[in-house]
């Protein structure tokens, strides 16, 4: 009888699981089909979906297509860097040899993971790797070899299973081979595919997959309950034994409590805590494990950099108004040339490393000998401030003014202090540079709102007669002029301007408020990838909101810096400031709403028009626009160019076939080549090596 009941429950359980699984799949297919139908009716979708580099919306027999640079492991940009380092930049070569000598003495940072051997092997790969006929041949060969792969997989699987069983039987001895209990991350091998995050091989679960898993666990638990209940009903003797054991265990617990009646609660807690071993996981490790149970990507910029084998340093910077900023660094401590990368709105430093070794500006600059600094504006949901009790209203009360006059100055001065002290330490035999000159060259590469903040920073520092410490500005689709935009931006402009007094009190900032909804967004991004028509529909609708910009908006939603723990946000005053700039048609500082308030801040009843002060910019400026950019159109970047040129600024202008997010989140070889070529125009500070006796004699003559 027991066997009949068990078989009946097993068959019923599998039937229910199959029914629910197929029902959920059919529901998802229905949504995908309706999305495909709606997608065919929307106009202009071909131009929008064309910009999804790395996200293939059309399903194929062999899975999603990988971009060519991911197949090769590198791009022609690395060949460009190699040629520049060998032929044109002789001073950089001499400096690299000096670095190697210092590294042999143990005083320098480790060399870049991108070696010359890997560059030569990468660039030797064929350029027409992704041609049409090659794909068909690969597909045919894959299907022909499928039976052989299955036959080979079975014995390999059995061997792997046997190896796991043997490894479990062997005890681990941490002290025997000097291994610690902390996890070991191997250094990245040059030539491997480094897409961060790897969208086409992402193993995160989406919402649909989580629902399937949750329903299956629920069904298992329900039928497990009924199976145990039926087993107890059909076995009265066993049921009586279980009930009897309950009574005996309760009597034993009462007697134990009586024996320990004289012991205090604190002493009991101490005894329990003393049983924890040294190898037990720390609270941080437990948090990481708990987060991994949600199956979301919560990697930080530090995780990405260190996983790829690069050095990393985190620097906490506190502004004069109390905000805590994270300045991240890929250190090359003895380098006399540095680059500062500043992100745009709703972005973070992750954008500069999101394409891995091959396509990220941060790694490209480090490979070329630069000390790389990654700036982060204020405005994370975690709200880092010296005043731990600061209210949400007070924390989010800042505009672009504070980004330019508080955030950037604090980070740049911290960079200056670090570089000057490190260069004295790592190069003691080099003659000191005069005080009016800094011993290093600092270039800046910024995107979107970061470009507007950098321009505002340079101009305000020049007005205050303070050094801005930059040697060159490379601005990728910079904000500042927005009068040429679409209807959606115009609607948002008047909404912010007319309803600002009311909305500012209700919505101090724009972000996803809770961990649950941030996790949901991260998982929905995976569902948009699993169901191409749904992803294409969301991509098209989001592009309509921003005027038809063909950036990979769906792909950006799945990036690690939009995770359940934290995410970048935008304050209401920043959005209001952008609305003021668009309404006035001028690149102006924040209008505080009254003549008296503006008079107190600026010394005039109107905020400063920064375009009138472009003549104060005393360093070369490179402006880059995207022909497909509908957020900041090329006409607005050309307006920057015309005003700078008329003001006598050394400025250049270039255009690429890019949308707005392509400047950071997409792999673009020609853009990286252009940025690096502009950086290499700035020569490092010229120094002369002197002997220590000569330095002492010089100081003695100066004092005498």
UniProtKB/TrEMBL annotation:
Keywords: Membrane, Transmembrane, Transmembrane helix. Coiled coil: none annotated. Residues 94-119 are annotated as: Disordered. InterPro entries: AB_hydrolase_fold, AB_hydrolase_lipase. Residues 302-356 form the Partial AB-hydrolase lipase domain. The chain crosses the membrane at residues 140-162. SUPFAM superfamilies: alpha/beta-Hydrolases. Pfam families: Abhydro_lipase. This is Triacylglycerol lipase 2-like isoform X1. It comes from Camelina sativa.
